[in-house]
Structure formats: C-alpha cells, structure tokens
C-alpha cells in the first residue's frame, strides 16, 4: 500500500467512524424529542421520567421554526417522536403542515381541558401561561384597571409599556382578540395601545416590568412567570398583577405543549410520556419550574403562583392563536406596533 | 535582458495555467459543497411569490430598508475609522503602552456582539444602574436613549471593529516603510503620506475587514433584537416565524445575498488593475514612527478609552452578574460545553483556513472571471442570517439521508438511522458555508502582497505545485493564516443558529447555554456562559499575538 493509499484509507476510516457515531433511532425504550422549551425547564422532567420508567430520552433544543423545518426535511425518516413548544400558535402550524399525528388517549382527554388542546387531538397543552396586566402600585390603583381594551383609552397616554410585537406571546394575544372582537375593533385597540406608549417597545417582558417598577411607565401586559421571577429576586418592587376582562371573557392564556410527530418511531412510548406529563405527579414539576399554571385542573399551582389569586381564563380554544396569527401580525405591522 | 525575462514569465505563466488546473478542480469542488446551501436559498427565487409579499412591501420593507441602510453605513464607517486608526497607531507608531494595546485591542473579538448589546442596554437603559443613580442624584434627567439607532450602531461598532483592526494591522505591518519614506522624500508631509500612500496601499485589507463587518451586520439578529431595531434580517425572521412563510423568508434572504454579491463585485472591479505587492521589508520595531509630545499621550488615551468601553466595562459587568448566579448554575457540565465549543471552533478554524487557502491560491493561479465568481459566491454565506443558512444545509442533508435510508430499506431490507443528519460532518460543512469568508478575506488580501515574480522565480528553480504553496507562499502568508484561524475560531465559538439546528444530540456548547438562558429572557444568568465563552475565546487571540507579531 502506497503512502497515498494509506492516507485515503485513514480518511475513509475516519469518515465511517464519524458516521457510525450517528444516532440510531431504533433502540428500544427510548424517545427522541425536539424541544423549543429550553433545557433548564424541560431536562428535569426527562430525568424524572427516565428514573421512573427507564425510558431513555434524547433531545435537541432550538427555536420552533428551525425544529419544524428540521422535522419537515427529515420526513418519514425523522428520528423525532415528540415536539414540544412554548406556545399554541406553533403547534397549530405544525398540525397544519401535517407534522403531527392524532392521538387517542382517554387520560389526556380527562387531564387537559378541551380549550387547551387540539380538537383533532394532534397536540396538547401541558402548562398554562397567563398574559395579564402588570401595574406600578405607587402610580396606579387596581380600581383604575379593567380590560386589555381599556389600555387603549387616552387616559393611559404616555403611561403604557409593551413588549415587541415580534414575540409570539403578543401575536397570540392579538389573534385571540381578533377571534373575540373582530378585526376592526381589535385594530382600534392596538392603535390605541401604540398611541399610549411611554417609550419604545421592549425586547422582553422582564425589561418591560423593570421599567414599570422604575416608573418609566405605569402599566403593561406581560406573562405572569416573568413577574414571579422578578418578585422572587426583589420582593420590594412596586409592581402587581391585575386580572383583566373578568366581567367579560377572561384572561388571555397560552400554553406550553406537545404533539406526537407523524412518523414517530416510538409512538406508544411518546403517548405514555405525554400522559405522564399531564398527570398529577408531573404537572407540578412541569409548571413549577417556571412558575406557570398546571393544565390539569386537579393539580394546584406553586404556592407563589396561588398567591396571585384565582382568575377567570379565556375559554376560547388556544388553536385560534395559530389560526389568526398571520392576520394579527399584519394588523400590528399596519398600525405601527413594532 | 528585460525582454528575455518577460518571455520566460509568459512561457512559465502559460504552462502553469495549463498544468495546475488541479487547483481549479479543487476550488470548484470546495465551492460546490459550500454553494449547495446558498443554492437552496437562491432556488426560492424560482418558486411562486407568496401572498404575504404585498404586506411586506407595503408595511414592513420601507422601514427595515431604511434602518438597514443607516446601520450598515454607521457600523461600516465606524469600524473602518476605529479599526484603521488603531491599527496604524499600534502597527506603525510608537507611544507609551503600544505593545500592550497591540494585542489587548483584539480582546473585544471574544465578546459576542449580542452579549455586548445586552450588557450595554442593561447598564444604560432607564432601569439600569447609570440612569438610576443619575435620577437619585439629580431627579429626572435627560439621558441619550441607548435603545436607539445611535445605540445599536455604537455597540456594533465597538463589537466588530477588531475585524478591521486585525486585518488592517497586517497590511500596515507588511507594508514596509520604503514607500512611505519615498513619499516623504518627495515632499509629502507625514499626514499626506498616510492618506496618499499608506492608506491606498492597505486598501484590499481594509475592504476585506469592512466587508466582513458589513456581512456580519446584515446577518445579525441577536444584537439588533436586543435594541428592538428592525432590519432586513428581522423581516426575514418575521416572514418565517411570525407569518409562517419560509419561502418568503428565503426569497428575502436571496435578495440580500444578491445585493451583497453585487457590492463585492463592484468593489473588485474598481481595483482589478492595481497591484499591492510588497516593496520593502516589513517594519521592524526600531523602524517605527515615534510619536512626540502631546500626540504620544493622546494615542495612549485613545487606545485605553476604546479598550475600556469595548472590553473592560462589559466584561466587568458580566463578571458581576456571573458572580450572582454561578453558585446555582455552574456545574461539571460546563467542561463538556467548553470542550465542545473548543473542538468545533478549532476544527472549523483549521478546515476553513485550509479551504480558504486552497481557493485563494487557485484564484491566484487562474485570474479569470469564472474563478473569481466561484470564490466570491463561495464566501457569500457570511451575509446570510444563520437559521436561513442552517435550513439550506439541512434540507440537502436530510434529502441525502432519506435517499440512503429508503435505499437500504428497499434493496437490503435493513433499517438504518440517519447517516449524515446529526453528525459532526454536517456541522463542519454548515460552519464552512458560513465562515469561509472569514478565513478567505485575510488570506486573499495577504496573497496580494506577494508578487507573481516570486512564483516565476520559484518555478525556474523547479519548485511547483503543492511544494510551491508550502515552501514559497505559506511562510509569506503566515500573518494572514493566523488571522484567518483566529477569526474563524472566535466566530464559531459565538455562533448560535447553525449550532442549534445541526448539532448531534447532547452536543451543547457555551453559545447554546447562552441561548437557553436568553430564550426566556434570563439575561443575567446568561452572563455565566458568556464569561466562559470570552475566556475560551481569549486562547486563540493570545496564541495569535504570541506568534503573529513582529
């Protein structure tokens, strides 16, 4: 063998060894999960499940868009069994693109309220994320607050803070408003919000709530767990939550949820895992890690979360958030909500 | 005598062109690999335009085009001014601290722009410590808003100037003093000599550096989103993630890279007939311009100021934040993250530089349009937003895998898993497609310092092919190669979207840790992996300054 051939052989061996280290998706008792819920919030659950059942879980985290695109490119040969997201809109879109498989499970149907799962059983909510009103307790009294729509009233001029419309949480909120109020009325409301802004929109909820606490503005709209996180760090911050629309349809809720992929190689294992996630023992682990609300009505939320009081939630199916997302985004672009 | 020489050159040149077409082949092979993902993106131009285009054109594009124009102009000018001035001072002049600043001004390279962005906003926004302190002292005060066009330009300039600095410094170091002395002996003042001689002689380097900065600026999403400053790339994200239209996103991305391509070609056209070969020996330390009087200390102060705002303050803030969370977050897994980051960055840095060397050398052998176009296309990936390029890589990989899997199932009745998908090979390819420009630009500009008569002379002495590259060019390219390796290394360390999409199971890196934290707005917890990332990024920078300095 000449030196050159030996080089070639070495390179070929190297390539083969790299390839053989590629994951083989066909071992028994394992699950492959694509997750847009980030690692520190989801890994503890994987670990707990592996410990309880012996099922090995391999996972990749990324944003929803690339994960879905990955699933789509891989097609029937995808190793993924389950996809987890942190909003309903993307699950709706995954179902729309035929990436998810309908699941018949009495356990899931009884553990998860109907408005928090797909009517076609292709995806299921696993925790509730409530998007509500946050206000500065030194500058606003709860009595002045009423609804999301009211924040468009001129009395809030120069007093409102919002997060960017690029974030899916706001897109879902506006989509649900369109479902309820119609496009014309929603457009007026969003236009009113923009007119009331105290400062440029914020890149995230935390920054926005800090601005409310610091008095840059008086009131805003955010997810409760960001509020919980801030308060945990500094209980003296002068901010509080308000539950809007309690006389009407209730607080806007979104979900973090999951669906079994169309070509799942471990379909039954994936369903068993989903059922476990919706069960009483896992629900607290799932929701409490991020101070979210359990979807299972039989499970109590974290004491901190309970402390924020009970509220009426909007019962329109969260799939509307996906269905009307494009319309919502266009609406926000039109009125200049950045 | 001179005609004889000319004849030899023509003859050897002609023979070289014929004989070493292996370079053309190699270059084409590499370019094809890199061009596949870019091709996937460009392919979208042939698909029917989606119905959201009308919305984008009316409500989104006017704003983002305006924003992008000012951002590119601001950051391009800013980094050129900072990078060239600092490179000139530390490369050619002598003043107190010059040797220290020569390497320490590279440090911001290790700090990702998106990290510098969240530090700057954290410090200087209404709720940050600076404004809070000012309010408690003076009541309500006006403070220039950091979340503004000026703010984002400032931060990106400070984060990206090292690209220009590093590459331009190479130019000044290799320029030799002779041209400058000639100009001065002809009556040019020192200032005039700088603008008329030194600067024009460094043009390919400065352009190469600024081009990298502009491409990085165009592709950036992380930094501008901290400022909520919507750019063309934000619109691409919007089309894909918010309006659920990947085709429209790819079409937008195609427009972006075509514009970049046109700009690069135009710039090259204006200097095709100019040669930038070296006429003297590089300036040794004792040959420097010794600054006198107040300008000595002004230079020191200037360098110190930039180092402070671009590195010391942000890293100090990161350390403070990291100190608050390390007890809770730091664990043994960080060794794994660090190892993965270093391995991926190191592997890609070496591969990309080697590939860049090959195509740059091929470009030197064959100075025709086809060759130049191939090289330019192959280095366009740097202007593409990461996730878009990741899709471009993943689609053909998955297609290939499906072909193999279905094939073995059908013919051999064996079930196999993914062959390429989720392997390091794919990651390497994706990184290569993205970062080839970062390796190519410094090497190619360096190659222009070597006169073709060197090649001819070597050829006459019977040195040819790979031996020519290894024995003649490589030693002369050392500076450019080291720059290329360092830049690619640090860039891969900082990269997020491609790493996210193509990594094998369990292959989390430090940048992925930052992503996991920032995805839910936990910026302060992201400080810990960010500090680790900066520390790891210092390794190649220190190696570079040890080996590369004259």
Defining key terms:
heterodimer, A: 338 residues, alpha/beta, D-Maltodextrin-Binding Protein, domain 2, 2 domains, 9-stranded mixed sheet, 14 helices, 15% strand, B: 550 residues, mainly alpha, MetI-like fold, 24 helices, 2 strands, globular
Brief overview:
Chain A has 14 helices and nine strands. Chain A is an alpha/beta fold and 338 residues long. Chain B has 24 helices and two strands.
Report on this model:
The complex is a heterodimer of chains A (338) and B (550). Chain A has helices at 3-20, 39-53, 64-74, 88-96, 106-111, 168-181, 183-196, 205-214, 224-233, 267-278, 280-288, 303-306, 319-323, 325-334, and strands spanning 30-35, 56-61, 82-85, 124-136, 160-161, 219-223, 239-242, 252-260, 293-294. Chain A is α/β, with parallel strands linked by helices. Chain A has two domains: 28-128 and 254-301, Periplasmic binding protein-like II (D-Maltodextrin-Binding Protein, domain 2, 3-Layer(aba) Sandwich), CATH 3.40.190; 129-252 and 320-334, Periplasmic binding protein-like II (D-Maltodextrin-Binding Protein, domain 2), CATH 3.40.190. In chain A, strands 1, 2, 3, 4, 5, 6, 7, 8 and 9 form a nine-stranded mixed beta sheet that branches. In chain A, β1 (30-35), α2 (39-53) and β2 (56-61) form a beta-alpha-beta unit. Chain B is mainly α. Chain B has helices spanning 2-19, 21-43, 53-92, 98-104, 113-124, 129-138, 149-175, 178-185, 190-201, 203-219, 222-227, 232-242, 246-269, 294-329, 333-365, 369-378, 386-412, 424-447, 452-460, 465-476, 478-494, 497-502, 510-518, 527-548, and strands spanning 93-94, 289-290. In chain B, strands 1-2 form a two-stranded parallel sheet. Chain B is globular. The two termini of chain B are 37 Å apart. The chains are: A alpha/beta (338), B mainly alpha (550).
